[in-house]
Structure formats: structure tokens, C-alpha cells
Design a protein that fits this description.
The protein is of the alpha+beta class. The chain is 27% helix and 22% strand. Helix 1 packs antiparallel against helix 2, helix 3 packs antiparallel against helix 4 and helix 7 packs parallel to helix 8. It starts with a strand and ends with a helix.
């Protein structure tokens, strides 16, 4: 069954060799880019376009046409390639349309070599754009998926390549446009197949100057070309081999080619087999085809196709049964270490959840708008109100709406089930820095010898799937401070939390975050200071105080505020001067080089104007030299300072002590619900971990 994709939706691919068929109504340029697991294109040689139509596992058209076929062999993709982006662009300088809004919506279909359609996507909503990333094929858990993208660019190919990080974006775009405009690619009819077999039909040869097809005396016949217009082996003007190509055979001096290439036949002039023909298929050149000319059929093959399959990837999970999703495995993402692979896998899960939810919401919105349109049409026609036709039309519109929503929900449930299965195997495998406090990994905790990649601050989920929690990881060292908002708020479950209870929960959340930071850093490489002018956080601070992991007792009153801020401000100044002077080692003897964290409770109690200025200075300049800020504050209580403190709040990452949907996602427009990572009630794991941190500090003193 064909999957009709909407923007953001994905679908698994069960075949390695595919065709991507494009229908645009008017001539467009089709191409593709290859990128790594971070979405980065390493250079112009990672782009397949009319001037360089072949890359390993990929071939695109050399011409601008209304219909295209892109050949893809996922099994031949280099291991470094994790994403294939299919792009369409309007050719410039040929007098055609300049924006997609004036064309029919481009239609793309992903098919098998037998023509069976796997998924299709109609790129709607384009207006002033002249280039668009239509589809992307990407690796996920050892398998490939296709995703509908539809990201358009009004600036054409130059803006598209620049957005993907290519430094030579404008030069590459200009080269592609010149190749199309100057006719560097030979226009050849797209290959067609018969119903009975996979044999390619011969295309009409290029007409000569007399335009009647007669051979011109002394003229050199054109070399055979592939279905996408690439010259055969040894043809004059043949483009150089791709830098990614691998030798097709072990023969000395064998030129490099694409993974579709096979050794050329030893018979002069005999074209090799088509890359789409199965092994043992009859050679189309052996028997003249109906309608063929004296010059023989057009060669639709790659002249040096590689006949051996690429080596399989190392086994990580049991192979999936046909039609069944791949079994998830913890740590199957890319990375140099297990921690890095798990980090990339967690954020891959976040991306998948965001996209599949965006696709579901888009489908529901479409169903709603369609039902409203059909109801309006039914009610606006007076004839439909006679004989009960209006009620029948309404029922039909509602039934269609229900069908569309149910179909979208089925796809969503399928994706959520796969993500839930992945979360079930990933969560138990997380290291302490990424794990919840109730994870058994904390029972075997040991003070680490190196700083981890990231730290877990809580969980994220969406209202349609509250049971699926994605860890919220932030990179270390922290690039910005944290703000635990203790302001009055209504909890999402409908219960009201008073101001005193919320402040207590905010301080407990701050202690849990500080304890986790202390636990994941090596001994004596992270120091915590506390400012608690009114002493209101004393109960929550007991684990930090009793274990002895603080740099000193919590600072009380205005005098304590001045003392701590003066010491940390001086530290920032000294480190900045040393770094700017080119002598980072020229610091006073006994200078503490560890990362510093300042926890401020009950702000702005105990702060005067000078202290507020110093606090803003630490928030702005501190992270660059290892001084971080964690505020536990209610913004309304500091409203007397007016806009003076607005830069302070904006510089901090706002977190909440209770579940709250305040984390906005401008990427796909979601409002993610955040839940803090707190220690379970009655658990002693926090105290045990802090005691081990204190013991390790004593050992290395």
C-alpha cells in the first residue's frame, strides 16, 4: 500500500534500490545532496547535479525536464552518508517560470525498480520559492526511511546550499545553472519499461543538422549515453569519476565509477547490461529492438557497474522480519564512544517524535479544514436543503473527516509504538549523567575521571503522547545559566500550588541539579557556592551542607551576598585578563581552576543595585570562563527593577519545579511539557552520591 505523506511525515523503506520519480508540469532541475549524521555536507563533491550526475549509490538527471527519475541504491551509500536530500529548482536564464507558486504542485513518488510505489508526496504551499528540498532519505537504527520535507527557498539553489552549510554555495549554484542554460547536458527521453520485462526501449537518436535523422557524411556518431545523459566509458568529454567511487574490479588501471558500474564488455561497441536488469537478463543489444536505428539502441547502463554487493554493516540487532520495524538497540547511533552514541540517539528520538507529531497535527488540521469546506458548500447550495440532501452531505463530510483522522492516528500510533520500544531499551542503558535518579545505574555510582558530554535536566513530552518521555540533555560545560522559576503557577494536572510550596519545590529542584553536576564532574573539578540571604532554603540545602560538598556555608544576609559576588567577580576578571593576555597559566598560586556554580535563592532579597549589577555581569561573562549561575527566583518579586533585569532573565534557561509546557520549539511549533528530574520521595540515593563525591574530594586533596 502506498503511503501518501504530508509535510514532516516519514515512512520506512524496505528496499535498497529505488527510483524517485518527479513530475513538475514544467522543466525543473533535479538533484540531491549527501550529508552526515549531523546534516553537514562536506563539500561540492557531496552534491549530485546536472554537471556531476553520479555519486556512489545515486544518479540524477543531466537535464532540466518536467519528469525525472532519480536512481538510488541505499546499499551502496558510503557509511559516512546518513541523509540524502532530494532537491528541485527552477532553471534560470532560460525564460521559464521563476517561482514554484506559478506551477502545479510538484509530485514525487518513491518506487521500487518494478514500478511499485512505496510512498509519494505532493509539495504544496510553495509561492515565491525557486528551490525546494522535497524529500529526504535518512538512516535510523540501521534502516532507511523517507521523510516529506517541502522546505522552500526564495533565493534559489544558492540559499538552499548555504542553508546546508556549503561555503561555495553561490559558485556551485551558478555552475549548475550554467550547465542547464548552456545545454551541457544532452536531453534524452526518460527510460520506459515494458509490461512484460525490464528491458529498456531504445530512444530516438539525436537529430542532425538537417533535422531529418539522416546521417551526415563524415560525422562522428554520438557516444551512447545513460538514461540520465552521462557518456559511456571512454567517450570524449566524459566527466571525471566521483571521489567517492570505488574500483569496479581488481584489474590494474581500472577507472573508478559509481556503485552501479560494471566492467565493460570485451566486445568493441557492445553496451553493458542495464543497471535495472536482473542478473541473466537478455542483452538488449543482441537483438535489434523494434523501431531501432542503424546506430543501435541507446545505452541506458553505467559502463562499469560494480557487481559485488557492499559488505553488510556490523550486526547490532536481530534482522527485522519483512514488513516489521527494526528492533531498537541502545547506542546504535553514530559516535566515538557509547556516551556520544546514546546522546545522539536520544536527540534522534526527540527529532522523530517532533516530526511525527507535526505530521499528525498537520493531517488533523487538513481534515478539519476539508470538513468545514465541504459543510460550507453543502449549506450554501439551496438545492441541498430539499429532501434531506443537506443532512446526507453533512454526514458524508463527517465520515470523511473521521476516516482521515483515524488514518493519521494509525500512523501516529505506529511511530509512537516504535519510539516507545526504543525508549524502553535506551533508558536502562543511559549513564549516570543522562539517567533519572531512580535508574539503577546510581546504585553502582563511582566518581568519574572525565567530564561527560551532557547532563540530564528533566524529561520532555507532548500532550498526545504523555507516556513517551524524552530525556532533556544539555551539553557540558554549560553555555548558559539556569533559572528555576518559583513564581506562582497552576500545575498542568489542575491542582493549584501555593507560593510557599512552589518555592520549596524550586529549591529542591535546584539542589537536585547541583548534586547531579557535582556527581558527573571528576573530583575537585566542580565547586558550588550558595547565596541564601533569608535562610529560607535551609531545609532543601541539607544534603549539600551535611555532605560537605559546598565551597563554604550558604551566604546569609546582605554581607554574605556582597562577599560571594565580590570573590566570583574577581575570579572572572582574573581569568579574562589571563586569557586575553595569552597567559592562561599565569594565575595566582593556589587559584581554584575548577568550574564554579553559584546558586542564588530568594532573589532579589538582600541585593542592592551594586549586587544586581555584579549578578548580571556573572550571568553575561561567567560561562565563558567557567562561572555559572543558577537562579531560584520569582520574576514578579524583582519587578521593581523594571527592564533592567530583562537581559538577565533572557540569558538564563528557564526551568520549572512542576510540569509545565513553557518550552517552545520554533522548529516545528510544539510546546513541550517539561518535568524536572527530582529524587524519588524517601530515596537515599542523593545523599549516598554526595557522600562519595565528598570522600573523593578528601582523597585528592
Amino acid at each position: 500500500m502506498t503511503a501518501e505523506l504530508v509535510r514532516g511525515q516519514n515512512h520506512p523503506l524496505s528496499q535498497a534500490r529505488l527510483e524517485i520519480r518527479v513530475s513538475a508540469g514544467k522543466p525543473v532541475v533535479a538533484g540531491a545532496t549527501l550529508s552526515d549524521e549531523h546534516g553537514k555536507i562536506h563539500g561540492a563533491e557531496w552534491v549530485a547535479h546536472p554537471g556531476a550526475p553520479t555519486l556512489p549509490g545515486l544518479e540524477v538527471s543531466r537535464q532540466a525536464a518536467a519528469d525525472h527519475r532519480l536512481a538510488v541504491d541505499l546499499g551502496a551509500m558510503p557509511e559516512a552518508v546518513h541523509r540524502i536530500s532530494v532537491l528541485l529548482a527552477l532553471p534560470t536564464g532560460v525564460g521559464g517560470p521563476v517561482r514554484f507558486g506559478g506551477l502545479p504542485a510538484p509530485f514525487l513518488a518513491v518506487t521500487g525498480l518494478d514500478g511499485s510505489e512505496v510512498a509519494n508526496y505532493t509539495v504544496t504551499g510553495l509561492e515565491a520559492e525557486s528551490a525546494v528540498i522535497a524529500l529526504e532519505l535518512y538512516r535510523r537504527q540501521g534502516a532507511w526511511k523517507v521523510r516529506a520535507v517541502g522546505q522552500g527557498y526564495a533565493g534559489g539553489l544558492a540559499d538552499l546550499f548555504a542553508d546546508q552549510g556549503l561555503p561555495e554555495a553561490h559558485q556551485l549554484a551558478a555552475g549548475i545553472n550554467d550547465a542547464v542554460a548552456q545545454g551541457l547536458a544532452r536531453s534524452v527521453q526518460a527510460p520506459r519499461t515494458t509490461d512484460g520485462d525490464r528491458t529498456r526501449h531504445a530512444a530516438t537518436p539525436t537529430l542532425g543538422a538537417d533535422q531529418n535523422g539522416a546521417a551526415t557524411p563524415g560525422a562522428v556518431p554520438p557516444p551512447p549515453v545513460s538514461p540520465y545523459g552521462s557518456p559511456a566509458s571512454g567517450a570524449p568529454g566524459q566527466s571525471p569519476a566521483s571521489p567517492y567511487a570505488t574500483p569496479a574490479s581488481s584489474a590494474p588501471g581500472q577507472p573508478l565509477g559509481s556503485p552501479y558500474d560494471s566492467p565493460a564488455s570485451g566486445t568493441p561497441g557492445q553496451p553493458p547490461a542495464s543497471p535495472y536488469d536482473p542478473p541473466g537478463a537478455p542483452d538488449p543489444s543482441a537483438t535489434p529492438q523494434p523501431g531501432s536505428t542503424t546506430g543501435g539502441p541507446v545505452d541506458y547502463s553505467h559502463p562499469r557497474r560494480q557487481t559485488t554487493a557492499p559488505p553488510p554493516p556490523p550486526p547490532t540487532a536481530p534482522p527485522a522480519q519483512p514488513g516489521q520495524p527494526a528492533q531498537p538497540v541502545a547506542g546504535d547511533a553514530t559516535g566515538w564512544s557509547m556516551d556520544e552514541r546514546l546522546y545522539n540517539q536520544v536527540w534522534g528520538m526527540f527529532e522523530d517524535l517532533a516530526r511525527t507529531m507535526a505530521a499528525y497535527r498537520s493531517a488533523v488540521d487538513f481534515a478539519d479544514s476539508r470538513m468545514e469546506k465541504e459543510l460550507d458548500q453543502a449549506l450554501s447550495d439551496p438545492r441541498s436543503r430539499i429532501g434531506g440532501q443537506s443532512e446526507a452531505a453533512r454526514e458524508a463530510a463527517r465520515a470523511k473527516h473521521t476516516q482521515l483522522v483515524d488514518q493519521a492516528r494509525t500512523v501516529l500510533d505506529r511511530d509512537l509504538a516504535q519510539l516507545a520500544a526504543e525508549a524502553d531499551v535506551v533508558e536502562p542503558a543511559l549513564p549516570a549523567a543522562y539517567a533519572r535518579w531512580d535508574n539503577p545505574v546510581w546504585h553502582g555510582y563511582r566518581v568519574p575521571m572525565e567530564i561527560p558530554m551532557a547532563l540530564r535536566l528533566g524529561d520532555l513530552h507532548l500532550p498526545e503522547a504523555p507516556q513517551l518521555r524524552i530525556p532533556m540533555l544539555v551539553r557540558l560545560p554549560l553555555e548558559r545559566g539556569l533559572w528555576i522559576d518559583s513564581g506562582r503557577a497552576d500545575s498542568l494536572d489542575g491542582s493549584f500550588t501555593d507560593s510557599h510550596e512552589l518555592k520549596r519545590l524550586a529549591m529542591e529542584s535546584a539542589v537536585a541539579h547541583a548534586a547531579r553536576l557535582l556527581a558527573v564532574y571528576p573530583a575537585r573539578e566542580f565547586t558550588v557556592h550558595v547565596i541564601d540571604p533569608a535562610g529560607s532554603g535551609g531545609q532543601a540545602l541539607v544534603p549539600l551542607v551535611q555532605s560537605g560538598v559546598l565551597a563554604g556555608p550558604p551566604a546569609l544576609g546582605a554581607a554574605g551576598v556582597v562577599d560571594v559576588l565580590a570573590r566570583l567577580t574577581q575570579r572572572v576578571d582574573l581569568v579574562q585578563m589571563a586569557v586575553r593576555g595569552g597567559a592562561p597559566d599565569a594565575l595566582p598560586p593556589g587559584f581554584d581552576t575548577s568550574e564554579q556554580l553559584l546558586i542564588v535563592n530568594d532573589f532579589p532579597h538582600g541585593f542592592d543595585d551594586r549586587a544586581v549589577t555584579q549578578l548580571r555581569y556573572l550571568a553575561d561573562e561567567g560561562p565563558a570562563v567557567g562561572v555559572h549561575l543558577m537562579m531560584v527566583a520569582d520574576r514578579e518579586e524583582a519587578s521593581a527593577y523594571g527592564p533592567l533585569l530583562d537581559p538577565l532573565w533572557r540569558s538564563l534557561l528557564r526551568l520549572s519545579p512542576v510540569p509545565d509546557d513553557h518550552l517552545a520549539d520554533p522548529w516545528v511549533g510544539h510546546a513541550w511539557t517539561y518535568e524536572p528530574s527530582l529524587v524519588p520521595q524517601g530515596s537515599q540515593v542523593l545523599q549516598r552520591v554526595l557522600n562519595q563525591v565528598a570522600a573523593a574530594r578528601t582523597k585528592y586533596t
